[in-house]
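re: ur question from the group chat, yeah i did fold both. here u go
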Amino acid sequence: QVQLVESGGGLVQAGGSLRLSCSNSGRTSGVWAMAWFRQAPGKERDFVASISWSWTSSNTDYADSVKGRFTISRDNAKNTVYLQMNSLKPEDTAVYYCAAGGLGRKSTGYDYWGQGTQVTVSS
């Protein structure tokens, strides 16, 4: 069973930075991609970024709204994926969820989810 635990959320002023972490403490075999989604109150869960990998390479994908500001990366030894968020805007305020066991930009494409971590950006 894949078990995802997020950390790193908090309150930050506009223009600031945060780094989210997602650790997989369960099964890692067969997990070749992880992603971040976010959900603001009253809105759908939206794709933020994903990273997929093989033995020799990795690929990243970003939503247009975060491209150039957010960076997704992976530490294989720690079974952890990070989301570095720079130049944060109030519209980035949401609960951020880590996902695994799937691929792509649709939340329905993932089987495993973390509990979520709140990110609040004040203006």
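okk and heres the other one u asked abt
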Amino acid sequence: QVQLVESGGGLVQAGGSLRLSCAASGRTFSSSAMGWFRQAPGKEREFVAAISWSGTNTYYTDSVKGRFAISRVNAKNTVYLQMNSLKPEDTAVYYCAANRNSATLLGQPTHWGQGTQVTVSS
């Protein structure tokens, strides 16, 4: 069974940092684009960041550019999201996603994690 398991969420004060991890099990995603989405209470799920299979190409939504960094270690089948200078508006459930049909673009993910809560207090 294919699983994406997120970890690293929690409660942090504004201006603080967190690093989310997403570990894939059941099959390798080393040739797949992967990324992160988030969903705040009462809002739709939104794209946050994505990374190509090699790590060469990364993409970010405008609101996190310069603060968040996505990376991956294919040998560990793991993707990371380093979040710095966190703001209360970053509060959301963060979901890991993978697209088995694409090595470069996350597009419409084929696999999702269960989500991890990130809460930023002011």
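fwiw on the second one: The chain has a mean pLDDT of 95. The CA atoms of residues 81 and 98 lie 14 Å apart. idk if thats what u expected
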